Amino acid sequence: MRPFLIAGNWKMHMNAAETRAYFETFKGLVSAAPNGVSMLLCPTFTSLTAAAEASAAITGMHIGAQNLHFEDKGAFTGEITAEMIKETGADHVIIGHSERRQYYNETDETVNKKTKKALSAGLTPVVCVGEFLEERKKGIHFEVVKKQMVAGYEGISADDAKKTVLAYEPVWAIGTGETASPEQAQEMHAFIRAEFTALYGADVATKIPLLYGGSMNAANADELLSQEDVDGGLIGGASLKPDSFQQIVGFAGEIFAKNG
Ligand code: PEP
């Protein structure tokens, strides 16, 4: 079985002092990721250094940013480069989150450029895709996700694709308390795996971790993570509480111990 990646997206929460306090508490709950599980937390830019320092003693914990610019430098007020992110100690970056697509005009094209930049800088991109509710209701959700994937990975080699993580986050499930059913998540993840197989072959497709995101929490994570093609979670709200994040990590560890 593939190892799990349990990731948290803190969005615009948690200043540096709160970040340090979070890791102090978390360290008391989990000093090392369970076998077969990696952990990732993605705070806001100004808390990245604090997160990297405060989590250094937790085995299997990675830190990621929530966005980056695809250029290396220049007149881009308010933006931040891949190298600046690396300098903080972070090694992952979320790309194309639906909030960035909705509020900051992120497009499949910028997602593609940012993914290439992250890869060339040695950061692991967590590429987000997902459909709106109206698109699911119209029955075009597979088509929408396929378009986002194909455009997002355009020109990315098989060797590089293997170094990426993809998060399927149905927009209607993000921050709404409404979760995709385990069957809906598995169905879409199997579809995404098949699309990666068509693009890169089965060997690469089986290696790309596919995370589910959208109101995952300690009450529903066990069932979602038990699905064959769900290799982890990208968790917003529930990752802000050390104990619920720890519980989700624990479920992943138990599932891996049973089937791994
Ligand atoms: C997210 O921000 O990626 C997310 C899935 O949020 P939530 O878990 O709060 O729905």
Please give a structural write-up.
With 260 residues, the chain is of the alpha/beta class. It has an 8-stranded parallel β-barrel, surrounded by 5 helices. The model has no long low-confidence stretch (mean pLDDT 97). Helix 5 (108-121) packs across helix 7 (141-152). The protein contains 12 helices and 8 strands. The protein is 44% helix and 15% strand. The chain has one domain: Alpha-Beta Barrel (TIM Barrel), CATH 3.20.20.70. Phosphoenolpyruvate (PEP) is lined by residues 9, 11, 169, 174-175, 213-216, 234-238.
Share of helix, binned: 40-55%
Number of helical segments with 4 or more residues: 12
What's the shape? Answer: globular
Strand order of the largest sheet: 1-2-3-4-5-6-7-8
Number of domains: 1
Strand and helix order? EHEHEHEHHEHHHEHHEHEH
Say how many strands there are.
8
The CATH superfamily label reads Aldolase class I
CATH topology: TIM Barrel
Structural class by secondary-structure content: alpha/beta
Q: What is the mean pLDDT? A: 97
The main sheet comes to: 8 strands, parallel, barrel
CATH architecture heading: Alpha-Beta Barrel
Q: Give the termini distance in whole angstroms.
A: 5 Å
What proportion of the residues form beta strands (DSSP E)?
15-25%
Question: Are any ligands bound, and if so which?
Answer: phosphoenolpyruvate
Instruction: Report the C-alpha radius of gyration, rounded.
Output: 17 Å
Q: Regarding quaternary structure, how should these chains be classified?
A: single chain
CATH class: Alpha Beta
Poorly predicted segments: none
